[in-house]
Amino acid sequence: MYRFWLIVVLLFCSYAYVLPRWSDWNQNSRLNLVLALVDDGSPRIDRYVENTGDYAIYNGHAYTDKPPGLSFLGVPIYVMMRPLLDAPPVRTQLERIGARFEKTLNPEGSGLRIDKIRFALIQYALTLVLVALPSALFGGLFFLVLRRLGVAPIPASVGTLAYGLATSAAPYAGNFYAHQLVAVLLFTAFILSWSPPSGWSPVVSGVVVGLLLGWAVISEYPTAPAAAVIGLYAVYRHGWRWLVSLTLGGSFPIALLVMYDLAAFGTPWPIGYAYSALWQEQHHTGFMSLVGPQWEAIWGLTFSDFRGLFFRAPWLLLAIPAYWIGWRQRTHRAEWWVLLLVPLSFLLFYGSSIMWWGGFAAGPRYIVPMIPFLALLAMLFIASVWSHPGWCTGILILMASSFGLIWMEATATQLFPTDSIRSPWSDYVIPAWRRGDIARNLGMVLQLEGPWSLAPLLLLITTGVIVLFRSLPGDRPTATTMQPTLVSLPIVPPQG
Length: 496
What we know:
Blueprint: H1 2-17, H2 25-40, E1 55-58, E2 61-64, H3 69-85, H4 88-99, H5 114-148, H6 153-165, H7 169-172, H8 179-194, H9 202-219, H10 224-238, H11 241-265, H12 280-283, H13 295-302, H14 309-312, H15 319-329, H16 333-350, H17 371-385, H18 389-410, H19 424-434, H20 455-470
Antiparallel strand pairs: 1-2
Helix pairs in contact: 1-5, 1-20, 2-3, 3-5, 4-5, 5-6, 5-8, 6-17, 8-9, 8-10, 9-10, 9-11, 10-11, 10-16, 15-17, 16-17
């Protein structure tokens, strides 16, 4: 467990270092709902709507047009925070800390008002608790899964850090989006369906998996096909006795969503996007912007420099030979299908949307939930070739380049690249680094400026990696790639 917690701490500190974007419409819209539910006792965000363009207008009132799952989780945390935030000593300290970021502000803006500092602190706190911490803990889980699949400690650690720090999961683990939370929920549900903890009864296991899948759906509606794949897999593996438990667990978040939609829109159906104040033409093209698979969108989400997943994290391409090997070996076929269909569901869904690029984004934010499924397969292939120096060197070079690409884009300026910039590296990221325009981060609290403000982060990651690898034995993998066995948690044979 020492290595588990070391990975968790390293990832959490990395995610916490760069502050969430303050002027991000998507994040503000989700946080507005938290404030409205607690401060006003209403789903209407009329009082806060000026800070976002992502909102719906219904019967003369403003509502977030985002799925409310992440916002629901933020309500109890904000309830606990609110009395502390309103204490005079805390307000004084907030003003002092906020002044450290004055140089990062738009000179034509309204300045550092106390209400804006308060909003930013709430955003940061909720991001840490609801996104960064679950993502860091998930990194520890990912390491344990690799170990139980027979991957040796060193490649398992390398793969975990590569997933957590060298894919598009990294920027979204430190911002108040739902994409990375959904990745955690889906993959955890898959692992629990594959091999529930031995101390859990079938009822408890099914309820937990259902709850995870249900909350993923109410956090990002396009998650529904992937959740259905994992739910069907769970029933296939454990039999029909799990169906009732899955339904029971999933019914709680769905009931919350229905109650919210009734209160906001007078209907049990999630129709926020149908009333979005902006992009009405796009939302009403096809079925909620879906027009069928488009080559431009699929290429753009995978290999383009605009939003391409593999352009930013080329090491994930090693999942492709793993798919081929898995199909040829004909073992664990059910798991193979899940690992194939979940990524395909996201790629085909967003590859069919005329708004596939996702507005302001660092990489393909919409398909972030599919990354751990690809990373698992890529790491199983990597484990099989790790002992070959040539392969090992090439893989480490790919991962190191991915780390650089991900963090350069994630830390360039105070907003993620807009969708109007189709060449974000030449027109946005590199120019920002040249002029020293770096995203707000904790290094600026120490009065470090520009790229130098990221030096403590690089030192932290370097130190953490050294400590982690000095604690690891150098044994080789003990299992053949694509023949996984969760050795400490027995696999339940399929029934029914």
